[in-house]
């Protein structure tokens, strides 16, 4: 692949986003668990719960700082690397990001300081309230960002203005309650809860293997396994809902995930295994499970699912329709809007397909001069990389179900076997700590790579979205970002590992005193 302006811009943003998302899931999940632990402390006044809250809060704080720093850089990249995109859809995309900054981020940032420095200055109930504000702020941040991202996947509530050449917001509530955004929000935050749960269970298992901080570890596993089990089920349910929404809004993405080249008669089967070949336009060695994909994608046994080849034919028809809109747009622009009603009606009839005509802009200077062969080639550009989509999705799902099984086992052992965890379970819990991060990154890859060649699905091709920067500048800044973020990641991991090795250092005497006061009295021998 030749790395030009657009490819390097995409790679730089992808690197920043994927580094950023190494920190976000743990922040989302730990914030809820910290608030829950502190609530138990306020209700019981047992110092062990305060100690747990402070210990896991230390790890939360280290992670939170790195998440904020990478997130701020990513937002600046919209203006620096994607200036045409920012101009084209800024009225819609900017609204949820502005609300996120004004409402959620300031709520989170304000109360996180109070939480860390207010232990001895606030009453327990007030401090607990601050902890819940941090958790709510973190999750509200995710909500508004995912509303913005959901609009890119399913643009609703907006119209194109031919005079300003921009998308304009016409229905904020349609953007807010976009079904793609809502499903994506719950799916993403639930994945964050699973990440934090696996992390807490893994670290606690490490303590149990070494016989250290046993009381803290057992209680932490009890909280995390229950929380993580519920979150894992939510991830699966909302992942299924995302697949159903893709059937209506992103058919090409779903077909690429399935390696489905030809339209399947109802009910469609699920490709459990296969090797998609994009040149041959077939999936070799496919192992199919009957009916499953029909149930996931259509919720029925009677609706067929379109394959990639038929979807490409549909894209070709939309490109030709978009060319009609493009020609009418040129007339409207040349006459400064003073055109006949027929021209306006023609534009309005075909304007929904204008983005498809713009796919030709990377191939010819004037889309109206495109040949039939070029139109067909542009239609095939709407197919993302099928092989990476196919296997990334399956690895993500496999990791998800494995984590569900482990959390179920740890929950069952905690509640029905008196917390007698076998050595193998504790060791597996330690070794799978990286797994939720791998699954989360794969999920974002499927979501964003699967949207290509669009920045905004069906409206704005990625090739038109980038700023006019030099390849040299992008290559240098990309190298700088990767070097800086890798250094920060190494520092964060060293700080986290140092804090874990050190263990809980707060309220040690209070916990020991409470345990001494409430230790069972040994029976005295008879005289």
Kindly describe this structure.
- It is a multi-pass membrane protein.
- This protein is mainly α and 527 residues long.
- A two-stranded antiparallel sheet has the order 1-2. Strands 3-4 form a two-stranded antiparallel ribbon. The chain has a two-stranded antiparallel sheet with strand order 5-6.
- Helix 3 runs antiparallel to helix 4.
- It is globular.
- It starts with a helix and ends in a 10-residue tail after the last helix.
- The mean pLDDT is 91.
Topology (SSEs and partners):
Elements: H1 5-20, H2 24-44, H3 47-81, H4 83-117, H5 124-153, E1 158-161, E2 166-169, H6 172-176, H7 179-209, H8 214-249, H9 251-258, E3 270-277, E4 282-289, H10 292-298, H11 308-334, H12 341-350, H13 354-358, H14 372-380, H15 386-416, H16 423-431, H17 435-449, E5 454-456, E6 460-461, H18 471-502, H19 508-517
Antiparallel strand pairs: 1-2, 3-4, 5-6
Helix pairs in contact: 1-3, 1-18, 2-3, 2-5, 2-7, 3-4, 3-18, 4-5, 5-7, 7-8, 7-16, 7-17, 8-9, 8-15, 11-12, 11-14, 15-17
CA-atom Rg in angstroms: 26 Å
How does the helix and strand content classify structurally? mainly alpha
Helix content: over 70%
Compute the average pLDDT: 91
How many angstroms does the end-to-end distance come to?
A: 89 Å
Largest sheet: 2 strands, antiparallel
Q: N-to-C SSE series?
A: HHHHHEEHHHHEEHHHHHHHHEEHH
**Which stretches are low in confidence, meaning pLDDT under 50 for 5 or more residues running?**
none
Q: Overall 3D geometry?
A: globular
Compute the number of strand runs: 6
Q: Helix tally?
A: 19
In spatial order, strands of the major sheet run 1-2
Indicate the proportion of strand residues: 5-15%
């Amino acid at each position: 692949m030749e790395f030009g302006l657009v490819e390097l811009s995409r790679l730089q943003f992808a690197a920043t986003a994927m580094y950023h998302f190494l920190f976000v899931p743990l922040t989302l999940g730990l914030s809820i668990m910290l608030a829950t632990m502190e609530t138990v402390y306020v209700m019981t006044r047992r110092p062990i719960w305060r100690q747990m809250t402070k210990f896991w809060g230390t790890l939360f704080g280290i992670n939170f700082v790195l998440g904020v720093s990478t997130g701020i850089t990513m937002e600046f990249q919209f203006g620096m690397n994607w200036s045409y995109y920012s101009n084209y859809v800024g009225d819609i995309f900017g609204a949820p990001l502005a609300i996120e900054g004004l409402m959620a981020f300031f709520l989170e940032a304000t109360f996180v300081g109070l939480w860390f420095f207010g232990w001895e200055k606030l009453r327990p109930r007030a401090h607990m309230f601050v902890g819940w504000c941090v958790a709510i702020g973190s999750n509200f941040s995710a909500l508004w960002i995912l509303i913005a991202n959901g609009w890119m996947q399913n643009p609703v509530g907006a119209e194109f203005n031919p005079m300003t050449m921009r998308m304009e917001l016409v229905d904020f509530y349609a953007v807010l309650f976009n079904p793609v955004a809502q499903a994506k929000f719950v799916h993403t935050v639930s994945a964050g809860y699973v990440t934090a749960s696996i992390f807490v269970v893994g670290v606690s298992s490490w303590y149990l293997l070494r016989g250290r901080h046993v009381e803290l570890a057992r209680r932490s596993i009890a909280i995390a396994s229950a929380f993580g089990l519920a979150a894992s089920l939510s991830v699966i349910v909302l992942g299924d809902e995302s697949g159903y929404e893709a059937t209506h809004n992103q058919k090409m993405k779903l077909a690429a995930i399935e390696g489905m080249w030809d339209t399947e008669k109802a009910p469609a089967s699920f490709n459990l295994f296969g090797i998609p070949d994009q040149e041959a336009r077939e999936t070799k060695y496919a192992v199919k499970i009957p009916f499953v994909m029909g149930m996931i994608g259509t919720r029925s046994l009677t609706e067929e699912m379109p394959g990639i080849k038929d979807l490409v034919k549909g894209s070709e028809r939309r490109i030709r329709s978009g060319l009609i809109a493009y020609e009418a747009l040129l007339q409207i622009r040349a006459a400064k809007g003073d055109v006949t009603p027929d021209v306006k009606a023609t534009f309005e009839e075909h304007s929904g397909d204008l983005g498809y005509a713009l796919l030709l802009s990377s191939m010819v200077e004037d889309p109206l001069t495109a040949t039939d062969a070029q139109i067909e080639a542009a239609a095939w550009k709407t197919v993302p990389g099928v092989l990476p989509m196919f296997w990334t999705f399956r690895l993500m799902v496999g990791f998800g179900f494995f984590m569900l099984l482990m959390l179920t086992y740890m929950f069952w052992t905690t509640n029905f076997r008196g917390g007698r965890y076998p050595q193998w379970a504790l060791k597996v819990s330690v070794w799978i700590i990286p797994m939720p991060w791998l699954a989360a990154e794969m999920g974002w890859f499927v979501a964003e790579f699967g949207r290509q060649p669009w920045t905004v699905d069906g409206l704005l091709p990625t090739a038109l979205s980038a700023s006019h920067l030099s390849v040299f500048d992008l290559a240098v800044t990309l190298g700088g970002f990767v070097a800086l973020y890798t250094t920060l990641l190494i520092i964060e991991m060293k700080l986290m590992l140092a804090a874990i090795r050190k263990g809980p250092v707060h309220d040690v005497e209070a916990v020991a005193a409470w345990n001494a006061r409430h230790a069972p009295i040994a029976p005295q021998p008879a005289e």
